[in-house]
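Consider a typical record:
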Amino acid sequence: MTHGYVDLNQLWRRLGEAVEAHPEALPTPLMVVDLDAFDANAADLARRAAGTPIRVASKSLRVPALIARALKKPGFAGVLAYSLREALWLHESDTSNDIVVAYPTVDRRALAELVASPSAAAAITLMVDDVAHLDMVDSVRSSKAVPVRLAIEVDAGLRLGRQHVGPKRSPLYDGPSVTALAKVIERRSGFRLVGVMTYEGQVAGVPDDVPGQRAKSVVVRRLKQASVSQLQARRAEVDEALAPYGPLEFWNAGGSGSVETSAGDPVVTEVAAGSGLLVPGLFDHYQSFQPRPAAYFGLPVTRKPSREIATVHGGGLIASGPVGDDRAPIPWAPPGLHLTGLEGAGEVQTPLTGHQAALLAIGDLVWFRHAKSGELFEHTTEVHLVRGSRIVESTPTYRGIGHAF
C-alpha cells in the first residue's frame, strides 16, 4: 500500500480536526491511535493466520484498552507478556486468564507473588531455557503446593555452518538439549511443562521489500525461506523428542511479519502478533502484508528559523535496536517533511525541511510515526483513540496507571 500526498494531507486534516474538536486543550507530545486502521489490521492478521489463534504481544501495545480491544477480535486469544510483573497485573485486572511471559524472569518479588497465588499461577506461564530459572522459582517458595506452569523457549535462528542468523535468545537448539531440560522439569516437583516457544525474529522482524534496496531485499527473502524450511524440520524434531513428556497445551511461534509461515507449520498451535496492529515505521516494507499505520504522535511547530524550516517542540523518540536512521521517528503528515542531517530528531526540538515546511505556521501540529510499536507509549500517560475525525476516547497507557514494566 502506498501513502500518497493526497492521503497524507487528508490524514493531517482529519487528525487536526479531531484535536480541534476536543473540548479541552491536549498537551503534546499528543499520542493518537486510529481505530479504523487498528481494527482493519486486526482483521488482516486473523486472515493471514487462517484459523490459528493469535496471542496478543502486549509489549507492542502497552495500552490496556488496546490490549483488551485486540482480545475481543475474532481470531485472538491470550496475551504474550513482556514481564512477570506485567503478567500479574494483567491477571489482577481481569484482562486475561491466559498469559505467557515471553522472557525468562529473575524478579524474585514477582515470583514470590506468583507462587503465593493459586489463581495467578494457573493463569500465567513462565518462560525457561535453563535449570537456573527453576532454581530461581524454588528460591522464593517454602512450599510447592502451587504448581508453576512452564514453557521452554527453543532457539529459532537460522544456522549456516558456524553462523547464527536471528535473535540471540535461548541456548537450546535441538531435541537432545530441549529434552535434557524437560527431564529436569519432569523430576522437579512444583513445575508443569505446558508449552514451547520458537520466535523466528529473523523472519518476523526484518523488512524484505525495501525501496531502493532491491538486492538486499532479495537476499533477506532467501534467508527467510531458508530459515522457515530449517525451522520447520527442527520444530518437528523437538516436538517428537518432547512426546514422552506429555501433551503440550501450546506451541507458540512467529510475529507480525511471519504470521503465514509460522501458522503454516503443522507443529505450531498459535502465533504471536502485536506490531501488526499499529504498524510502526519498521513494518512498512514487507511482502507478506500491506501496512496500515495506526499510531501517531503530534508535535507543535514552535519556531520558524527561516521560511524553509519549521521547528517542532521535542521529537527525539528514538527506537531501540541497532543505531541507524531507521530508528528515528518519521515525519508523516503533512507529507514532504524531512529531518535534518545535523540535528535529526532532538530531545527539545526537531527542525523539519521540505516544501511543506514553508506552509506550516507556529502552532500547527506535525504528525510523526515511531519506528517501533509500543515503545511510543512509554513517553506518555494518555492515548487518544480516534475514529474518523473525532476523538472517541482518551485512555491511559501503562505509564498512565503508574506502571513501568
The chain has two domains: 5-29+294-400, 36-277. The CA atoms of residues 78 and 327 lie 29 Å apart.
